[in-house]
Amino acid sequence: MARLLALAALFLALGAPPPILVTLGPQQTVQTINVKMGVHTRLTDEVEEWKIKKTLEMVRAMSAPWIVDYFPWGYIEATEGQYDWSHADQVVDHAQRQGLTMIARLGFVPNWARPKDSTINYLDESRYAYFAQFVAAFAEHFKGRVRYLVIWNEPNLNFEWGYRGVDAAGYTRLLQAVYARAKQANPDIQILAGALAPTLATPGSTDAMSDLEYLQKMYDAGARDYFDALSAHAYGWQDSADAPPAPQRVNFRRTELLRDIMVQNGDAAKKILITEGGWNDHPRWTKAVSPAQRIEYTLRAYDLARQWEWLDAIALWAFRYPFPAQTYQDYFTFVTPEFDAKPIYFEVQKYAR
Amino acid sequence: MRGKFQLPNPKSQVRGLPGSLILAVVFCAAFVYSLYFLFAPKPPPKPDAVWTRIVSDGVFRVGIDPSFPPFEYENGKGNVIGFDAALANEIVGQWSHENETPIRVEYVYSGYDGLYDALKAGEFDAILSALPYDARKTEDVRFSHAYFNGGPLIVARIGDESIKTYFDLAKRRVGVELGSSGDAFARRWQRRLQYDVRFYHSPAEALRALTRGEVDGVFTDFIAQSDFAKREGGIRIASAPLVDELFVIAVRKETPTLFAQINAVIDAMKKDGRMGKMQREWF
What we know:
Number of domains of chain B: 2
CATH topology of chain A: TIM Barrel
Number of strands of chain B: 14
CATH superfamily of the largest domain in chain B: Periplasmic binding protein-like II
Radius of gyration of chain B: 30 Å
Mean pLDDT of chain B: 91
Number of strands of chain A: 8
Low-confidence stretches of chain B: 1-5
CATH class of chain A: Alpha Beta
Largest interface: A-B, 22 and 20 residues
Structural class of chain B: alpha/beta
Shape of chain B: globular
Oligomer: heterodimer
Strand content of chain B: 15-25%
Radius of gyration of chain A: 21 Å
Number of domains of chain A: 1
CATH architecture of chain A: Alpha-Beta Barrel
Helix content of chain A: 25-40%
Shape of chain A: globular
Largest sheet of chain A: 8 strands, parallel, barrel
Strand content of chain A: 5-15%
Distance between the termini of chain B: 105 Å
Order of helices and strands of chain B: HHHEEEEHEHEEEEEHEHEHEEHH
């Protein structure tokens, strides 16, 4: 009987598909005429390693040297004090092997660090030190591999601030809590603040605050000493890349207005990195453009970025989703979930080579 | 015992029946029952609750995002018009006739991305809003038979009969709208067919280049082709769609009767030419 069982186990083992062997492969470099080009990848929810590798290979082949990705605190430190770096390591190591520079966006409060029934964006001020501890651990763990950290995402939206009421001074205190700890853990780390949502919120709105007003309020609260560069979101909506900026208009060059505020506050030496942005070509979304316009504006935006000496990188939203959003969001991407490159991918590649 | 006549014991007779005979009898009975079960006339299945309500109340509630001409848009007087509205009217028209009770369409507006959730929440009975078939959604909803194919097709000049498939464009010149699904298709086959792909900023520009003889074929969709043919002419459809982009109506899983009733009208419209007539009218 035992022999029969052993034989059956052997047959089963022989019949099972072998595990997919994914290696980092040889060190690559990005060939590009525009060293500021980048994309926001969405590897946070990508489970299979070969897909992580393939995504990053395709980014490299598109000639974009920068990527932004999201590293949720709640995934890495699901239990207080216990860090699971395995997935983050996988993403960072493959990115590094493809010759890509990673900008890591940090956020997502774990259950243990927030009240029951609060959202993942809710971080009470009494818990800032816990987040700072995580940022410091991240900076230390990825020393030599990740140099740029974006602290939080779009805090000028009430939703992104955990429905606590938009509070630029409160966000500034978060930066203050994080900055020294992160530098202590890794003096080379660059703390990026802001990542503000470009909005036209009316004064007094409970949903959002204008990004321009919010940035000024950050400076008023003393944020200047607690970040090394500003992260900006530069969506074009239906304007071309060249459309002039205006406070009451959301478009790509709105980034210049953020820059003006930095200059006005004596912060001209600091750089901006665009960590989200771009155009959408959904056939029905009211803020979308045609596919041809999307390509034209995207190439122009990459080129404008090259000319802005105060800008270090421009990572557009979004390279590829691991699964379809089944909404207009799918029309922001360069590559389908099945790794089919869209025409925009080939046009960007053609431009950058 | 001698000379005494004995009657045979009936029990011993039964006991004596061979087992195989009993099995055969049971099998035959089961077979006859199965035949009856399979072929006997059955009462019609009970209509689903939504269909029952549509017929009793005389209202078919349609979820729509009226921002996509020529399929659905408002005419400025608060009325939804377009191909999909005309289709909805045909559907309720046929239902009214068959059920001998008036049924009308009631539109429920929804943002396009919220249509599926609103359907699931029961805010309306069906989505009829230039909705593309999506295999990933088939676990959640039932999709009707397709009533339109929005995939790119080959458009050629009138008088040029040499192009019937994309293989006929090998080593020739193909025009596409940059970034469109026609563009994606053209790039996919370019290496094999070695045609020269020329990019334009709109389908109209590509079709104009076709009429000027700058390209030999254009990959674009039916609506763009039809619009250009009406305005400027000189072009013809040379092929079936190269890629299917099927427009369908979605209903909830638990409404099989409504699903069948919608399909019956779509099938009838295709068969009797009403669908083609509506396409000519709206596109």
